[in-house]
Amino acid sequence: MERNDTRVNRRILTLLAMLVFVFPLLAACGSDNAGDTSGTGTNNAGSAGDTATAPATGSGTDGGAPTAAATAADAGNAGGASGDKTFTVGSKNFTEQYILAELYAQAMEAKGYEVERKINLGSEQIADRALRTGQIDMYPEYTGTMTVILKIPEDKVPKDPEETFNLVKERYAERKPPLTVLPSAPFDNNFGIVVRKEAADQYNLKTIEDVAKNASKLTFASYQEFEDRSDARKNVEKSYPGFKNFKKTVLVDSLGLRYKSLETGNADVGVGFLTDGQLADEDKFVVMEDPKKIWPPYYPAPVVSTEYLESHPDAEAILNSVSEKLSAETMRELNGQVDLEKEEPKDVANDFLEENRLK
């Protein structure tokens, strides 16, 4: 009996000795494995962030809030170290924006940047939110629209282009996080009230005032954003009260289809922009004069994360080199190549940059 107890005791002591010896090894291995797992998790998180970036474009287009994963990943790109030459370009949802975004994106690529595109985000509110939350590093905006984003009262908005630019540049720099408005391109892409040539001749329409006086006989082709914005239809009706008396208003969100409505006679009056490619054909469309000058200047300018520019000091010169080459005539031609000749914005941008030796 005592001999058996002795054997049991020896076995217990042997097991305890083994545990004392083996446990530190197991702990060390566990620590190493934990380190490997952590490293793997970091890499996977990065991959997941990259994967999540693409759906963020869709959520922006739909007007939904960006996902947290996409926001975190893109914020990392936006505020990366100076050695990280990644750049995310966004745009709103019409032809000129697609072209401008491609121009800036391809110019950056030509200088060695890896560029991600989040084109066709939606309205200016969505694009602005994407910029402020780090979804994108830059998008082209118009100085007049910037005053709307900043909620500057209409009577406080200068009519002089330079004064407007200086005002929005100062206010954007004060935002949280701060944003930089780079020098604008030298052209004004303002709203344009456009009339079908036959209707303009029939009613002798030359100004927005003329349209307002004859509105009860005319059909107006508008779009939802123009109806909603304080500086758009509401602004026109405030200055030209008769503008609210159209016989009929039809909403056509596609710019091309609005012009098609005018061509086919389904509408008499439409709204577009002064650099629309369709306006090159004066036999079809007449732009109404605005004697009261109701709109502030709408000069396009890159709006960029200030943090990004501070960590990538060469980016500013690259973006400025594109803006300074543009004009109203050039932009109307580029827009026409996309809207009328059905070319792709990326191809139109590529040809322009090559012709101007920017890539």
Mean pLDDT: 82
Portion in helices: 40-55%
Report the biggest beta sheet as strand number plus sense, adding barrel if it closes: 5 strands, mixed
Kindly identify the CATH topology of the largest domain: D-Maltodextrin-Binding Protein, domain 2
Distance between the termini: 94 Å
Helix-strand string: HHEHEHEHHEEHHEHHEHEEEHHHH
In which order are the strands of the major sheet placed?
7-6-8-5-9
Give the helix/strand class.
Answer: alpha/beta
Shape: globular
CATH class of the largest domain: Alpha Beta
Number of domains: 2
Radius of gyration: 29 Å
The number of strands is 10
Structure description:
The model is unreliable at 1-9 and 17-82 (pLDDT under 50). Strand 1, helix 3 (95-110) and strand 2 (114-118) form a beta-alpha-beta unit. This protein has two domains: 65-188 and 298-355, 3-Layer(aba) Sandwich (D-Maltodextrin-Binding Protein, domain 2); 191-287, Osmoprotection protein (prox), domain 2 (D-Maltodextrin-Binding Protein, domain 2, 3-Layer(aba) Sandwich), CATH 3.40.190. The N and C termini lie far apart (94 Å). It has helices at residues 2-62, 68-78, 95-110, 124-132, 143-149, 161-173, 197-203, 208-213, 224-228, 233-239, 255-264, 306-311, 315-323, 328-339, 345-355, and strands spanning 86-90, 114-118, 138-142, 179-181, 191-196, 219-222, 248-251, 269-273, 285-287, 300-305. It is globular. The protein is built from 15 helices and ten strands. Helix 3 (95-110) packs across helix 15 (345-355). The strands form three sheets. The protein has a five-stranded mixed sheet. Strands 3-10-4 form a three-stranded antiparallel sheet, sandwiched between helices. The protein has a two-stranded parallel ribbon with strand order 1-2. The chain has 359 residues and is an alpha/beta fold. 53% of the residues lie in helices and 13% in strands.
